[in-house]
Specification:
By secondary structure, the protein is mainly beta. It has one domain: Hypothetical protein (Archaeosine Trna-guanine Transglycosylase, Chain: A, domain 4, Roll), CATH 2.30.130.30. It is about 10% helix and about 35% strand. The chain has three helices and seven strands; from the N terminus they run E-H-E-E-E-H-E-E-E-H. Strands 1, 2, 3, 4, 5, 6 and 7 form a seven-stranded mixed beta sheet that branches.
Length: about 160
C-alpha cells in the first residue's frame, strides 16, 4: 500500500466521505480496480467529497474497526449492479442502480481512526483535517452535518447489507 507524500496530501478543509467496507473482495476492488459502489437509494444526498476514506468493519480482521485507507474520487457514475459485477448477474439486486466512485490509488492513513466502541454506520461527511486529527470515529462528523454529527453522535445509522 502506498503512503502519500506530504506535498500530495489534500488541504485541511477538503471534503472527505467516510464509507463502510465490510468484505475482502470489495477491499480488493478498491485496491486493484480503483472503485467503490454505493446503492443509489442509500447514497448521501449531497456528495461533495473529493476523497473517499474507508471504514473497515471488524469482519476484515486485524485491519477492521477503523478508518484505514483513503483515495481521491476521480469521477462518479451511475451504473447497474450487473455491469459492475457481471459474475453476479443472478444477484437479487442485479438490476439496481449504484453510484460507482472511480478512485485513484488507495493510500494508507498514517494513523488509522479506530471505532473504540462498536457502531454500525455507512457514511460520514468530514474534512481532511478532521480525518487526520480524529482519535475515534465519533470525532469525524462535522457539526451540523449528517446523522452522526453534534447531538446525534452516538446514534448508529444506515447499516450495511453487503451492497
Amino acid at each position: 500500500m502506498r503512503r502519500a507524500l506530504a506535498s500530495s496530501l489534500p488541504g485541511e478543509a477538503t471534503p472527505v466521505l467516510v464509507a463502510v467496507l465490510n468484505n475482502h473482495e470489495d477491499l480488493r476492488r478498491a485496491r486493484e480496480e480503483h472503485w467503490y459502489r454505493i446503492p443509489l437509494a442509500r447514497a448521501p444526498a449531497h456528495l461533495a467529497a473529493h476523497y473517499l476514506a474507508l471504514y473497515l468493519t471488524a469482519s476484515l480482521g486485524a485491519e477492521g474497526a477503523a478508518v484505514r485507507y483513503w483515495a481521491e474520487i476521480e469521477r462518479c457514475e451511475v451504473v447497474r449492479r450487473r455491469d459492475l459485477l457481471p459474475e453476479e448477474s443472478d444477484h437479487p439486486r442485479a438490476e439496481g442502480l449504484y453510484l460507482c466512485l472511480r478512485l485513484g490509488p488507495l493510500s494508507e492513513l498514517e494513523r488509522p481512526v479506530p471505532a473504540r466502541r462498536w457502531r454500525r454506520l455507512a457514511f460520514i461527511s468530514t474534512t481532511w483535517e478532521r480525518l487526520q486529527a480524529a482519535e475515534d470515529v465519533r470525532d469525524l462528523p462535522q457539526r451540523g452535518q449528517g446523522p452522526l454529527a453534534a447531538e446525534g453522535a452516538e446514534r448508529a445509522w444506515m447499516g450495511g447489507d453487503g451492497y
